[in-house]
Amino acid sequence: MGARVTRALRNFNLDNRAEREISKAKPSAAPMHPTTKTLIQEEIKRHPELEEIVKKKDDKLLTLLKEVYVDSKDPVPHVRVKDTSIPHSTELRLLKGNHFNLMSSENIPKGKISVVEALTLLNNHKRFPETWTAEKIAQEYYLEPRDVKSLLTFFIAFDVKLFPDNNKKKAISSK
After folding, report:
1. What is the dihedral of CA 118, 119, 121, 126, to 10 degrees?
2. pLDDT above 90 for 145
3. CA atoms in the 13 A half-sphere facing the CB of 89
């Protein structure tokens, strides 16, 4: 209902308003600086033929202008379009562990890991560093050993710390 009212008000007297805008005086050139105006007038007084030359059409230049033909072509972009499909030569592997969700499981190329796998291997290395070494992780997940070393050096899994219940009881009883 509100759209009908606003449309009616917007279209009210539209023809007359459009005609009024069209019939307004067209914008003129920006005014010249007073010193420029006086310089131009002085030059015209000294050389009155310049005014005629400026206002006269030159047929020779007009014919040359008519002969000009501009043919423009857009430059070819240098951006390569990536193929979104997985190439057939890439070896794929299944997810490790029991994180299989059949609805969202996907094949992962060798040399890559999922977020869940990254968190799992970081946690395994943190809990059992002597068994989950960088070499074993690289072999298990088909990764480069230097990438695994960087991963273990620069990324850490979050620690979840649970406070004992006796602190809660003391805090409540102190009130």
Report:
1. 140
2. yes
3. 0
Cβ atoms within 10 A of the Cβ of 137, count? 22
φ, ψ for residue 109, nearest 5 deg: -65, 150
Q: What is the mean pLDDT of residues 17-46?
A: 86
Q: How far apart, in Å, are the Cα atoms of 161 and each of 157, 158, 164?
A: 13, 10, 10
Phi then psi for 34, rounded to 5 degrees? -55, -35
- CA–CA separation, 169 and 136 (whole Å): 45
Report the C-alpha gap between 156 and 127 in whole angstroms: 12
Averaged pLDDT, 98-111: 62
**Rounded CA separation 88/43 (Å):** 78
Structure-token pair, residue 15? 């023809």
Q: How far is CA 84 from CA 81, 88, 92, 111, 174, in A?
A: 9, 12, 16, 18, 62
Per-residue confidence (pLDDT) for residue 175, from 0 to 100: 46
d(CA 33, CA 30): 9
